[in-house]
């Protein structure tokens, strides 16, 4: 019997990529669409419009489609939960009660437990996205200066520490001063704010948390990220190798070269 994969998809282009790879691996793909995912139509066997504030309907859909595993991919806005789950959605309220709050880790555990009770496994996103991870090394013609390397080390150390507190993993640094740390607003808005405060020449560092759960989140850099860096006249983007997705690789590297932005991907021993 063909296996059914529940594609729990938020906004962005990744859901269509995952659907294509899942089909290649022999899955029947049922998408539960929580956001605007371009190119999803035609890439999946069935698409079901879904809401984070109606989890009961999602669980019923999983049962009806006989889904045996799910993968979460794309941008899901946690603020939709913070704004309130209606009293009628008893399943959603139960998950929030199990989580005891809105921290990513607590919500993830509650979701895994809930789906596990239905016999559904939550898969690591890298099962379908591994080839898109950043390779180690310098990816652009321009290299960071020694002063910028010092900013990279500072930003990387701070980003890793912040991740342990459930804070976003993007940090903007300039000349040894931390300018901005990511909150709930996301990477692009953090870069925009940091570059506005820092002025030209900022160093942007993106890392993962020490306890990164790849079932629910893989940080990513794509064309929109580079456009934001270019608009803010940032000088460097540094990321953790093998842990962050590089989307639209050719377009990203071409724009970085054109704008004189250095992109480096650092190994686990970098500090």
What structural keywords apply?
single chain; 271 residues; alpha/beta; Rossmann fold; Cytidine Deaminase, domain 2; 6-stranded mixed beta sheet; 5-stranded parallel beta sheet; 10 helices; globular
CATH superfamily caption of the largest domain? LpxI C-terminal catalytic domain
Low-pLDDT stretches are none
Rounded to the nearest angstrom, the distance between the terminal CA atoms is 48 Å
Q: What proportion of the residues form beta strands (DSSP E)? A: 15-25%
How would a textbook summarize the main sheet? 6 strands, mixed
SSE sequence, one letter per element: EHEEHEHHHEHEHEEHEEHEEHE
The shape is globular
Strand and helix map with partners:
Elements: E1 3-9, H1 14-24, E2 27-33, E3 46-49, H2 55-64, E4 69-73, H3 79-82, H4 90-99, H5 104-116, E5 121-122, H6 126-129, E6 137-138, H7 146-163, E7 170-174, E8 177-181, H8 187-198, E9 203-206, E10 220-221, H9 223-231, E11 236-240, E12 245-246, H10 249-259, E13 262-266
Parallel strand pairs: 1-2, 1-4, 2-3, 4-5, 9-11, 10-12, 11-13
Antiparallel strand pairs: 6-13, 7-8, 7-9
Description:
With 271 residues, the protein is of the alpha/beta class. The chain has 2 domains: 3-129, Rossmann fold; 133-266, Cytidine Deaminase, domain 2, CATH 3.40.140.80. It has 10 helices and 13 strands. It has helices at 14-24, 55-64, 79-82, 90-99, 104-116, 126-129, 146-163, 187-198, 223-231, 249-259; strands at 3-9, 27-33, 46-49, 69-73, 121-122, 137-138, 170-174, 177-181, 203-206, 220-221, 236-240, 245-246, 262-266. Strands 6-13-11-9-7-8 form a 6-stranded mixed sheet, with helices on both faces. A 5-stranded parallel sheet has the order 3-2-1-4-5, with helices on both faces. A two-stranded parallel sheet has the order 10-12. Helix 4 (90-99) packs across helix 5 (104-116) and helix 8 (187-198) packs parallel to helix 9 (223-231). It is globular. The mean pLDDT is 87.
